[in-house]
Amino acid sequence: MPNDARTEDVNEQPRVLLVDDHDLFRTGLAKLLTEQGVHVIGEAPTGEAALRLVDELTPDVVIMDLNMPGLGGVDATREISASAPRTRVVVLTISEDDDDIVDAIMAGACGYLLKNSTVQELVAGISAAADGDSLISPQVGTKVLQQLRAQAGGVRRDTAAPRIELSERELDVLRLIAIGKDNAQIAQELFISPKTVKNHISNILMKLQIENRIQAAVYAVRSGIV
User: Fold this and answer.
1) CA 198 – CA 159 distance, rounded (Å)
2) What is the CATH number of the domain that holds 32?
3) Rg for the chain (alpha carbons), in Å?
4) Mean pLDDT of all residues in 6-19
5) Which are the contacts of 161, defined by CB distance < 8 A and separation ≥ 6?
6) How far apart are CA 213 and CA 2, in angstroms?
7) Residue 209 sits in which domain range?
């Protein structure tokens, strides 16, 4: 009976594919994640191999490196997002380059974490992705905002239009999302429950017809909300 219980627990975990061209890092990461209860179903050393395994294994979440020979992480993310929209991509990389960050997010990544993140932060990113949410580290969120503002030339759009669709509380939540706050931090700052935060985020995504909180952050910047 205990074996059946363990099998049931594994089956309920997000099914994760690791993509990184460094064998030692990939193997070590698989071991760390497995020790944390993450169900790692496969590993790929290249973007091309990742596409094949996504098609064969249908993982819930892909942990994607960016800088790989051949098909890079951004292009692989874009292809996965197009061909397997139910598979969520979380980027895990050493790159803090502004263009890499924005390119990965715009390609469809629902999370962007640096390789100096803790294993707990990565597990949180996997859980968020599997739940249809997203997670970016605060320093990455700041870089996204800076890059988007630079691309916009510092010109802010009229905020009247989004205010018609979003309530004041939803705008408050959106501003905090855009600066990289997670649900618990938003709840604490606005003195509301995490469940209420999640409901507000669901309403924001539905009203703006976008898929995740990273896209919400992009919208907030481009609309002049932050």
Assistant:
1) 23
2) 3.40.50.2300
3) 18
4) 72
5) 223
6) 38
7) 156-222
Q: Is residue 151 part of a domain?
A: no
Q: Which of 49, 36, 28 is nearest to 9 (CA)?
A: 36
The rounded distance, in Å, linking the Cα atoms of 5 and 188 is 36
What is the DSSP code (8-state) at residue 94? S
Helices 73-83 and 98-107 sit at what angle, rounded to 10 degrees? 10
| CA–CA separation, 152 and 116 (whole Å) | 30
37-60 pLDDT per residue, tens: 999 999 999 999 999 999 999 999
pLDDT tens digit sequence for 94-148: 987 877 877 888 788 888 888 988 899 899 889 988 887 777 666 666 666 666 6
pLDDT range class, residue 161, cuts 50, 70, 90: very low
Task: Decide the pairing of beta strands 88-93 and 39-44.
Answer: unpaired
- Best CA proximity match to 184, nearest among 169, 171, 167, 201: 201
Q: Is residue 144 part of a domain?
A: no
Predicted pLDDT at 20: 97
Please report how many Cα atoms fall inside a 13 Å half-sphere around the Cα of residue 181, on the Cβ side: 20
Assign residue 205 the CATH number of its domain. 1.10.10.10
Mean pLDDT of 76-90: 93
Number of domains into which the chain is organized: 2
